[in-house]
Design brief:
The chain is α+β, with helices and mostly antiparallel strands. Among the domains are: 104-239, 3-Layer(aba) Sandwich (Rossmann fold), CATH 3.40.50.150; 254-345, no CATH class. It is built from twelve helices and 19 strands. The chain has helices at residues 2-20, 27-35, 64-68, 83-91, 105-115, 132-141, 153-165, 201-206, 257-266, 279-283, 290-296, 332-345, and strands spanning 44-48, 54-58, 74-78, 98-102, 123-126, 146-150, 171-174, 187-192, 207-217, 224-231, 234-239, 271-274, 301-303, 308-310, 316-320, 323-327, 354-358, 363-367, 373-375. Strand 6, helix 7 (153-165) and strand 7 form a beta-alpha-beta unit. Helix 1 packs antiparallel against helix 2 and helix 2 packs across helix 6. The N and C termini lie far apart (54 Å). Bound molecules: S-adenosylmethionine. S-adenosylmethionine is lined by residues 100-103, 126-127, 129-130, 132-133, 149-152, 155, 176-178, 193-194, 246-247, 249-251. S-adenosylmethionine binds next to strand 4, helix 6 and strand 6.
Length: 377
């Protein structure tokens, strides 16, 4: 009983902070966040230590509830392999790359608000994860209106169990969300809770006319949320001002980047010079230029300590304070600097000044009030 009160109080504080930050506005979602017990979906998760390793937290942990009700992502799987959890329990910590999680409540709230659901809407969620978001959707729309799909059958089965245990029964499907889920289409809303490199054509086909797709685009520089209205098989809409970063759809991971970033640590540069453009202007999402930089540096991956940029064509950049080393077929930092000059000349547009268009054959960003477009690679 005491534990329930503690959880309820912590949940209330989290909701109040989301309301105060104005990321939560719709009373239906606020009520759902107050009622749905996040801790029931997070009986076990990983917390990252300062050294980068992952420590397991179970419901036995004295701070379990406090950790669950922080406004933080809770990672529940590493490396797409449940054995990492067993190993972490046995040894105290493990290394790995997150592959499933309960997303940060702020970003969940932003995306749920952006969905602008009406009673009776059918929603397809891509990436069931823990099931927590599917529970919020079911709370507001009703079980029969919610379909959630996850590529990992083990993750999906655990989520379905937790959903049932908390009294929610949306349709849970194990499968590749890139294909959507045709048997229950059309959907009034499709919500991508894992990032996509481009909008899958199945999502365009399975969205009802006038329906919305809300998802994050998987871009290392300039990632973000888009909200598209679908008509005649095309999705057109705005890049949202709020930043949103998610783990990518499994097939959309940039696995080439690890090798390229390691090579860029020691590669011999074709040229070295000083630069007036700070690296953080390009790689830090809180910089106003970052989104625009991502349009020019669209396939670029980044690494820290030292800051490095790499492109699949073999081009690379390495920062050493104000000195920048470059190599490979293109001078990527020269391109970043040229993009910065163009951004200033355009009046420093922010992410919400851009639209995104997705058709089955082409997908591109465009800047309001201009004819400038940037196709996805
Ligand atoms: C950030 S988690 C989703 C969070 C979830 N909505 C929640 O409330 O806990 C991303 C999920 O996407 C899943 N995923 C990755 N690739 C996928 C794909 N191709 N189709 C469906 N799900 C996928 C992962 O297994 C992972 O569980």
């Amino acid at each position: 009983m005491e534990c329930v009160d503690v959880a309820e109080n912590l949940r209330g504080q989290l909701v109040d902070s989301l309301l105060a930050a104005n990321v939560l506005r719709d009373p239906r979602w606020a009520e759902a966040f107050r009622q749905v017990p996040r801790h029931a979906f997070l009986a076990g998760f990983f917390v990252q230590r300062p050294d980068g390793t992952w420590e397991p937290v179970t419901s036995e942990h004295p701070d379990h509830l406090a950790l669950v009700y922080r406004n933080e992502v809770c990672v529940t799987q590493l490396n797409g392999d449940d054995r990492a959890w067993e190993q972490a329990l046995a040894t105290g910590s493990v290394t790995g790359v997150p592959t499933s999680s309960s997303s940060m409540p702020t970003i969940m709230a932003i995306m749920l608000e952006a969905l602008a659901v009406a009673p009776g809407d059918h929603v397809l969620e891509i990436g069931t994860g823990t099931g927590y978001n599917a529970a919020l959707l079911s709370h507001v729309l009703g079980d029969s209106r919610v379909t959630s799909i996850d590529v990992d059958p083990g993750v999906l089965a655990r989520a379905a169990d937790r959903l049932a245990a908390t009294g929610y029964h949306p349709t849970c499907v194990a499968g590749d969300g890139e294909q959507g889920y045709a048997p229950r289409a059309p959907y009034d809303r499709i919500l991508g809770t894992c990032a996509v490199s481009r909008i899958p054509s199945a999502w365009l086909e399975q969205t009802a006319p006038g329906g919305l797709i809300v998802t994050t685009l998987n871009r290392v520089i300039g990632a973000g949320l888009v909200r598209l209205t679908v008509r005649d098989g095309q999705g057109i809409g705005r890049v949202l001002l709020e930043d949103g970063r998610f783990m990518p759809l499994r097939a959309h991971r940039q696995s080439w980047a690890d090798d390229a970033l390691r090579d860029a640590l020691t590669a011999e540069p074709a040229g070295s010079r000083t630069t007036l453009l700070p690296s953080r202007a390009v790689v830090d999402p809180s910089s106003g230029f970052e989104f625009f930089a991502g349009l020019t540096l669209s396939e670029v991956a980044t690494g820290a300590d030292p800051i490095r940029l790499v492109h699949p064509d073999g081009s690379w950049v390495r920062h050493r304070g104000a000195v920048v080393d470059q190599g490979g077929p293109r001078a990527l930092w020269d391109e970043a600097e040229a993009a910065y000059r163009q951004w200033r000349a355009l009046g420093k547009p922010r992410r919400h000044h851009f639209t995104f268009t997705a058709t089955p054959t082409e997908q591109y960003f465009a800047l309001d009030g201009t004819t400038l477009t940037w196709p996805l690679p």
